[in-house]
Specification:
It is built from 18 helices and no strands. The chain has helices at about 1-20, 25-30, 35-50, 55-65, 70-85, 85-95, 100-120, 125-140, 150-155, 160-190, 195-200, 205-225, 235-240, 245-255, 260-270, 270-300, 310-315, 320-340. The relative contact order is 0.15.
Length: about 350
């Protein structure tokens, strides 16, 4: 599972560091500072383009929020960067069929819409202010690189230093949560027999009961087992082969953002109360999206048949695009670690625009 997502994980942390180094707080506030339709659509498009693992997406979303983005655009970015991504769709197509690819992408847009409606209806103004203060306290005061235009900043010789420092800082903050997530998911995929899943998915119950119960069960399994927006696909394939409903698989796939390690990341970024609010909103959003997609795809007769033998196909290793991407991004990570080691954070103040560490 780790092998499947390693390159996208590194890419996400790298993009987060790049945004922190190159995008000013003023520019971010101007683009995503409101909770309007334009800002939500823009954040969704940015998320789809960033194509991150859920852990790295959390770091990216934190950066947007800290730089001045509104709460709804920040959360919309999270959903988009973990659901509206090409490589996730490709892996779903190869392992589970085109129906899951379509449902993942359509569901990504639906998730943003449902989440935006819930947050607008319950907007916690005091919690948002509290979360911004908490984030400033627990994260470094990472100003932007000096320079007029984006390209001038990019050419600044201090830019690689600031990017490397931010990259290492984010990884250092999250590595324990990452390790825990992969170990839990691997153990559940390897050791829980199909009979346990069958009982949990209420086989034999009326269909409408099973649809709703499975759409609730999907995120609950995800909370304790989920790895990442790409590495979770093998686990989703195992669940699909074990008899969970179509909507249950989808709500499980959508729920990469509420795994236990990530909920702890939200707590450390934003404080316990905001983490609880985000977790609750996300859970309701994911269950609702799973139920809706079940009935939509069912109405068009587009729900595929499960493959009970899928587990055997997940244990093979191949020299494919994942292999080469992992090698390439491992080299990027090593380079950033090397630059950070040569330039400790305390010596990097001149690279930042008036900020001290």
């Amino acid at each position: 599972m780790f092998w499947q997502v390693a390159w996208s994980l590194i890419l996400g942390f790298f993009l987060s560091a790049l945004i922190q180094a190159l995008v000013s707080k003023e520019r971010m506030t101007a683009q995503l500072g409101r909770n309007g339709l334009r800002e939500i659509a823009l954040a969704t498009a940015y998320g789809a383009a960033s194509s991150s693992c859920s852990y790295a997406a959390a770091a990216l979303s934190k950066t947007l929020f800290k730089k001045g983005a509104g709460l709804i655009p920040s959360l919309a970015f999270l959903f988009a960067s973990t659901n509206l991504v090409i490589e996730l769709g490709v892996i779903l197509y190869l392992l589970m069929g085109w129906q899951f690819t379509a449902a993942e992408w359509l569901g990504g847009v639906l998730l943003v819409a449902i989440m935006a409606l819930i947050v607008k209806a319950t907007y916690p103004k005091r919690l948002v202010e509290e979360a911004r203060r908490h984030l400033d306290e627990v994260t470094d005061d990472d100003g932007t690189v000096e320079g007029g235009t984006f390209w001038e900043k990019l050419r600044n010789p201090q830019t690689p230093v600031v990017v490397a420092q931010t990259f290492v800082m984010d990884v250092s903050m999250l590595w324990k949560d990452l390790v825990a997530g992969f170990l839990i998911a691997g153990a559940l995929a390897a050791f829980v027999p199909n009979g346990v899943w069958n009982a949990f998915f209420l086989h034999g119950a009326p269909q409408w009961v099973q649809v709703i119960a499975n759409s609730i069960a999907g995120p609950l399994i995800a909370v304790v087992s989920f790895v990442c927006s790409i590495g979770n696909v093998p686990m989703a394939a195992v669940l699909w082969g074990s008899g969970i409903s179509f909507g249950g698989v989808l709500s499980f796939l959508y729920a990469d953002l509420i795994v236990l390690p990530l909920l702890d990341v939200y707590r450390r970024y934003y404080g316990l109360r905001m983490a609880a609010y985000i977790g609750t909103v996300f859970f309701v959003t994911m269950v609702a999206a799973g139920i809706i997609m079940q009935f939509v795809f069912g109405a068009f007769g587009a729900i595929p048949h499960a493959n009970p033998a899928v587990r055997a196909s997940l244990t093979t290793f191949a020299v494919n695009y994942t292999f080469w991407l992992n090698l390439a991004f491992a080299a990027v990570a090593l380079y950033l670690w090397y630059v950070n080691a040569k330039n400790p954070m305390s010596h990097a103040c001149p690279a930042h625009s008036g900020h001290a560490h």
